[in-house]
Amino acid sequence: MHTELEKRAISFAAAELLIFSDESASFYDNYLLFVEAVKKNKTPGNCEIYQPYEHMDVIEALKLIDELSDNLLCQFEAILDEAKAGIVQCAIDGELDSDMNLLSMECMIKKGCVNELIHS
To answer: Which of 19, 38, 42, 86 could form a disulfide with 108 if both were Cys (CB 3.0 to 4.6 A apart)?
Structure first.
């Protein structure tokens, strides 16, 4: 079972390489159907490999999706860690507003990134 973050990374990576015929299903669900077909040595019926990658066979495409999603996941996790560090630093500095709806995640990421650089 994949985490929500992994599902999003897989979805982004799959959308980069595959064109899915069933637009009502999520990219992640379509990806799972693609994986299932590849594992059964069947031609995936729910998608085509996007033109710039059409020279690849389905196994190569699956490997590239896995690599891309792993890279994306690392980036997502780094961004979330920076946001968390920014929130913690704002809390320490007494700068958090009581209305969390006003919280700018972009500012928290920036503050967390700066904080990480200072303490590295």
So the answer is: 86
